[in-house]
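ARCHIVE CARD
CATEGORY: sequence design from structure
SOURCE FIELD: tokenized fold
FIELD CONTENT:
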């Protein structure tokens, strides 16, 4: 997959908009996200639901129409050119395979992987400044993290 130039797009902006997109799609994922599955969700380190992300869905279902639609939407929203071939992602916690470059470079993801946690909600330092700033702008991610913490305590 060719990598789009996301240099002038903040990850927060990118993912905040991704969140709006993912709300309309639902699909289950598998593999290393086992511990993060909640109510059919496949949570990224930051609490986003990768399982409902168009990039994940398009990759898993090889859906060219969804790739084209998402590339057009994200190109417009983020002000960068994204091609249908860019819309492929195996999810946040995968360390091998195709990934949207923003998520591959995400500091929250890198931090969680270095700490060997599968989700920020499971981190001893939650909520740190990094995740706090992110979820303040992405309520669905915050809700997912808080739900995971609540259910872990029960
Ligand atoms: S890691 Fe991939 S699947 Fe998850 S939100 Fe980011 S682009 Fe979507
Ligand atoms: S320190 Fe913050 S960003 Fe890093 S894993 Fe913990 S909660 Fe997530």
């Amino acid at each position: 997959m060719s990598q789009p130039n996301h240099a002038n797009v903040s990850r927060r902006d990118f993912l905040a908009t991704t969140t709006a997109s993912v709300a309309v799609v639902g699909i289950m994922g598998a593999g290393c996200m086992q511990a993060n599955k909640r109510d059919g969700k496949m949570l990224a380190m930051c609490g986003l639901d990768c399982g409902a992300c168009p990039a994940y869905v398009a990759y898993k279902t090889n859906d060219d129409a969804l790739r084209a639609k998402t590339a057009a939407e994200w190109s417009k929203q983020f002000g960068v050119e994204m091609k249908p071939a860019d819309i492929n992602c195996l999810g946040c916690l995968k360390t091998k395979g195709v990934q949207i470059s923003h998520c591959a470079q995400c500091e929250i993801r890198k931090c969680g992987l270095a700490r060997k946690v599968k989700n920020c909600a499971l981190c001893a330092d939650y909520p740190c400044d990094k995740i706090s700033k992110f979820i303040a702008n992405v309520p669905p991610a915050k809700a997912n993290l808080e739900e995971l913490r609540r259910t872990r305590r029960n």
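CARD ANNOTATION: Strands lie at 37-38, 41-42. Residues 64-78 form the longest helix (15 residues).
SHELF: design records, drawer C
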